[in-house]
Every structure is written in C-alpha cells, then in structure tokens.
Write a structure and sequence with these properties.
The protein is of the alpha+beta class. It has two domains: about 150 residues, Trna Endonuclease, Chain: A, domain 1; about 45 residues, no CATH class. It is built from eight helices and ten strands. A hairpin with a 2-residue loop joins strand 5 and strand 6.
C-alpha cells in the first residue's frame, strides 16, 4: 500500500469514526491546524522544535457529551504501530491533564481502543526478532529505528513506512469498540467529579 493510499485509508477511517461517535450521541469537532491550515502544517513536517511537534501531532478530534458537556481528544489510527514522536506528543497531551483515546481500525470490522495511558507497546526487540539478522532494523531505546540502518537506504523508495522510530501496539491492551461509550461516560464522570472536589 502506497503512502497516499495509507493517507486516504486514514481519512476514511477518521470520517467513519466521527460518524460513529455522532450516532452514539457525542458531539465532535476536527482538531488541529492540519484541518484549518494544511499548508502551514505541511511547512512544519520536518520541524522538531517543541511547538512544531505539538502542532504536527495534535489529536485528530475532540468530542463531548453531557450537561454541562465534558470533552476528550481522540486519535484515529489505521495501523498497529505508533511512531515515537507521535506517542511522546500524545503523552504530553495526557500529562497536561487531558483525556486522550486512540481508536485503531484493527481490521475493517474490528475497532479497538483505549486511553493513551493504558496502551502498552511491544518491545522493539520482539518486533524485529522474527526477521533474519541481516534484515532487522536497529532497536534504540526500545523503538524500532529503520533510518539508522544501511538497509533503509536500499528499501526506502518502496518501503511502506517513513522510517521514523516506531513500536507495535500490544493488542491485549486494547478494548473492544462495543464498550467505548459506557467506559467513556464513566471516565468523563470521574474526571468531572475529581475536578469539582
């Protein structure tokens, strides 16, 4: 699957997710400058300063429910992997006191999700272990790091990824979609009660 095909698949899933949240009673809005100022965001695609990273990796959307409404961020993923920089930015959102859920299209008929703080990642060494030693990407600080290998230069023109450090999501840490609304309502209520006390 080409990069542009992956982008189209991700946009399609994001739209389906927003539709599904709406059917479940959530009000949603797209989030981030990628929706409002895509040219600006494109200019930042190679920037690594803290402000640019926060802009580049903003969650896809915001949803709310209740009276008065409580809100949370959501991120739609069509991959079983998370890039290191994206994961670190998502944790920044969480560490600032926000609720962030990542929803994965595990397969077309199987959506999985969890709160960012409850998602577990597979150690990079386990991800590369099935490959022959000469085809393994290096693992640095637990993250598979394709660009740090001589092999990456040979395959990057037809590779399915962009070469940035990544880790695989542990499926056992994800929840089935059918419990999303009830668990989210409980989380929003707990968050509201915590903030009122």
């Amino acid at each position: 699957m080409s990069f542009s095909d992956r982008i189209e698949k991700a946009k399609s899933f994001e739209k389906a997710l927003i539709d599904e949240l709406g059917k479940s009673g959530f009000y949603t809005a797209c989030n981030g400058t990628e929706h409002t100022f895509p040219e600006f965001t494109n200019r930042l695609r190679l920037s690594n300063d803290p402000t640019s990273l926060a802009i580049r990796f903003q969650p896809d959307g915001i949803a709310c429910l209740g009276n008065p409404p409580c809100s949370f961020y959501f991120e739609a993923k069509c991959s079983r992997y998370i890039e290191r920089t994206a994961y670190e930015q998502y944790m920044n959102v969480y560490n600032a006191g926000n609720i962030l859920v990542i929803i994965f299209e595990w397969s077309q008929a199987d959506w999985r999700w969890n709160f960012i703080e409850d998602i577990h990642l597979v150690p990079g060494l386990l991800t590369v272990a099935p490959y022959p030693a000469d085809k393994r990407f290096p693992v640095i600080d637990g993250w598979v790091t394709p660009r740090n290998s001589a092999r990456w230069n040979k395959i990057k023109s037809f590779a399915r990824g962009c070469g940035t450090p990544y880790r695989e999501v542990k499926i056992a840490s994800l929840l089935k979609w059918n419990v999303f609304k009830s668990m989210m309502l409980r989380k929003l209520e707990n968050d509201k009660n915590h903030n009122e006390s």
